[in-house]
Design brief:
The structure holds 2 protein chains of 2 kinds. Chain A is mainly beta. Chain A folds into 2 domains: about 120 residues, Immunoglobulin-like (Sandwich), CATH 2.60.40; about 350 residues, Neuraminidase. Chain A has 4 helices and 35 strands. Chain B is mainly alpha-helical. The longest helix of chain B is centred in the first third of the chain and has 27 residues. In chain B, about 45% of the residues are buried. Classes of the chains: A mainly beta, B mainly alpha. At the A-B interface, helix 4 of A face helix 19, helix 21 and helix 25 of B.
Chain lengths: ~500, ~600
Amino acid sequence: MQKRKKKNKILPVCFSCLLLIVSVCCSKSDFSKAIQVSCEPFIYPDYTDIVIPPNIAPLNFMVSDSFDRVIATLKGTKGKMQVKGRRKISFKDHFFKVFLEENKGDTIWIEVAARKDGKWIKYSPFFWFVANEPIDPWLTYRLIEPGYEVWNKINISLRNVTNFQVKVIADNNMADNACMNCHTANKQNPEMSFFHIRHSKRGGTIVNERGHLRKINTTSDKTISAGVYGSWHPRGRFIAFSTNIIVPAFYSVSHKKMEVYDATSDLVILDLKRNEIFSGEAISQEGKFETFPEFSADGKRLFFCVADSVKLPDDYKFLKYNLCVVDFDTASRTFGEKVDTIFSADRYNKTVSEPRVSPDGKYILVTVFDYGTFPIWHSEAKLNLIDLKTGEINPLPDVNNNKKYSNSYHCWSSNSRWIVFASKRENGLYGMPYFAYIDKKGQGHKSFVLPQRNPEFYGYFYKSFNIPELFAVQPNFGVADIERIFKEPAEKVTFIEGR
Amino acid sequence: MKQINHKSENSFWLKLCEKGIPGIVMAVVLGVFIQLKYQYHFFLKEQISFFAFDGQHILSYLNKPSFFSKLVADFISQFFYLRGMAAIIVPLLFLILYFSIKKVIQNFSDGPLGGFYALFPTILIIIFVFNVNTDLTYFISFLLMLLLFEGYSLLPSKWWRSLVIFILIPFLYAAIGGLVSFLGILIFIYEIKNNSYSSLLRRMLTVFILIFSLLVPLMFRYHYAISLSQAFLYPVDYKLVSLGWILAPLFSLLIVILLAEIEDQQYFKLCLCLVSVAFIILIVFGCYTHVNLNLEKLLALDSEWYFGNIDKIYELENKYEYKSSAGAYYCNLAHAARGELADRFFDVHQTGPQGLVLPISNKGSYLPIIFANEVYFYLGDVNASQHLALLAMIFSPNHYSSRLLRRLIQVNVINEEYKIAEKYLKILEKTLFHKKWAHNLLLMLNDNDEEKISCISWVRDKRLNVPTKEDLRQTNDCVKAFELLLERNPENLDALHYKLCYHLLGKEVEAFANTFFQFQEILLRVRVPKLYQEALVIYYINKPDLEIWSQIPVKPAILKKFIEYNNLYVHYQGEGRKLEKNFKNTYWFYYHYAKAEKEE
């Protein structure tokens, strides 16, 4: 009897305790005494006041570790959502997706309140404008150590930017530790891409044509090297390549790390149909360094960077590249006689590299910096947008909103509204992929970093994101395909004298 | 069949084996050996490994198979940081493995010699750990594999036991790597031995376990992006250690299990003798291959330099004769730290310019790449040091290193790249033995206390020497590095002496002389080292009419000795052996007879 009495007393007590715990956990935070501050919260990553695609993965962020509780309230024209956390705001994937979809074309205001030493602080809201245009859902990038001239472990990873799924699609561990680089998509034909495997015996350019892989050895007796930087012709038959002797060199000063220059370079075109490479006078002149070819959106012109040769390495600071363009006729495989200059190195006393034409043909995005051909180690390197109709150069101040460290290796989405680029803005050594919206008027909006499930991710990640490339369609090859093709012999090409 | 009654045999040796005394004795011997002769290998293992109490770091182990073995191995390796810990930890691991193997053998036969048999696989695995290219991961995988087998044998002998292991195999592959296949083999043999074939289901499950354990590595290799051989051999890198040594402990375990099985056979004693002899030969050969006492002496120099114990380096130099470039490199560094680089030039077996600045290559051992950054940091070319430290991280077996991380932090603090220094410090702060150093530095950086930061000795000293001229140079172009350092600070005596000695080691007397003339004001403030005087004499003999000789005194005694040397050289028609006794420690002898190793 006494035991039963004891049991009867214990149960209500336990129930009350449970109720108390639940009520404490679920109780509404008391904001009545919250301190309102007039500034926006300092969040990491910085996702304040940005334009975002409607299909982006949740933009999880965190506040400083001096806070112990944070609440984010998202208010759109169609609905509201609130998320709480200790220091991190992590959105549920599905709810976030739905919320963005509902607020497409509209602005979402985010109010952040954080608690410090028992006191709540309410910050000024910041906004996310949800663009109507989605971003290409697939992003590939190379993960490498920032080790400059050599490599050991490299892989090409594929990330779904609408969620947090990542997989490795090529790993040099399965290719005898060969270097892999320059995975480049054909924007007009998204099922086509290529990248290089550098290996003394089994290297080549891996061309992906709708899932069918080919390995092509692009070296020949008449060219300087195998193909390096490349660009697809929109119809997919040609790839323009630079051929370069790349020389890495180093600084001993504290504020610079290295310089990479071409001892010599030229351009060639690879004809995938005939396995031939050819060149032309306009793109491989004596006494000039031609590099970074880029076909126009309609394939009728070839943009490229060109500089007068200088004595290297002594005069490396005088090495400045122009951006030029020449006509290209696909039927006859010939180049025009006239080369036009789009960006003059002399006029601006700058150099330009990595031209990428928007798929709609309206703009060309370049990296502009003080000298040389390799912007990634130039802290002043910034993206510039050139209007191909007017020639106007837009320095994209909101995209280049970092004062220090490089922005480079950019790529367009297939709808010409989004760009991705590699930025070392966080610390000068490790590159991270940043997105930015380019509106129809050619104005760039504030850039933001690729979201990760854990907002602390980049703080503890010790590889550099390199050569980010957007794909509208998932690249349909994987590590097994690369392992197989690596073992196969490469197709050879014939050099045809150019006209 | 002749039955041997074990109980009636009270052999002392058998009793010892039963109690595992051979293993205990071996463990003690191991501990003493490590403490007296091999501790520096284990210091290096700590330096090129990394364990941080951080969620993201721990999750990164899941990217490859044997995540649990690697995690445990890295966790244990961090304790090698402490002097004497390797001599405790390694014998302890040895004992755990030894008794585990003994227990496994007992599952097959309860003979008294289990304690003897268990020695062989244990020693073969421990030998593995002594290799500079390996860490504890394979050892831990092996141990875990045995413990899993033991756990399996302890489960009730029901049909579901096999089903449980069948289901667990993929997870075990993730946890311990390719040794899961060997676990399948052990289980298969065990089930055969225990006649568990009474039911068809049991038989089928046993076969499935074996097949599945062999298939799982193949099934997962694309997920992990590893090659076919790596799928079965993970966590060992067969490019660093030969396949034979990887498989030797596994085969030895099977052999001793077989031996235990045939104890009651007539031919057992013969087999035991033959197998024992074979194992002993294998172990001796294994020790010869993996236990490198010469390398230990070199690692002693490296570690003591890392710890800052110059006295100890002098002690080691006097105790051992270092004939390699790496040995000369550290001895020269120690001499330079005491301002005696030129004075003690011939106390070291000089191997050429690479005895001053190690050239690096991505072929061959990773050790020179780890060593190479030290001299640049010492001289003040911190960028070069950072570059080499990053390369060393890339090419070291684990691709991360607590020691190199510290170096990267130092360089970035010196260069005022505080963001990147903070990034490294945050992860280092989550280690056990580096957290205090990291925490103190992080506090200073967080407070933006530039005054305090500048007062740190290695910051203050190096910032004075960091070059400011934006000339470019190649990785192995150390002469350019010296020039840039001297351009920044002509009073950087270390860089100056390194440049002078570098030219001398490369027999570039003219370059040496030009450098000397360029910095004569600084060099003539103190006594000119005998080495330099001897080299200047060579230049003087060839160019006696230069005006500079009026400012640079060449001691008459040196000149006299040179004439004597020259006369004898002619007299003996260049036969070096006859000149060695009196002139071995002169630059002239080096100039004529030393073969400077060519850079690869």
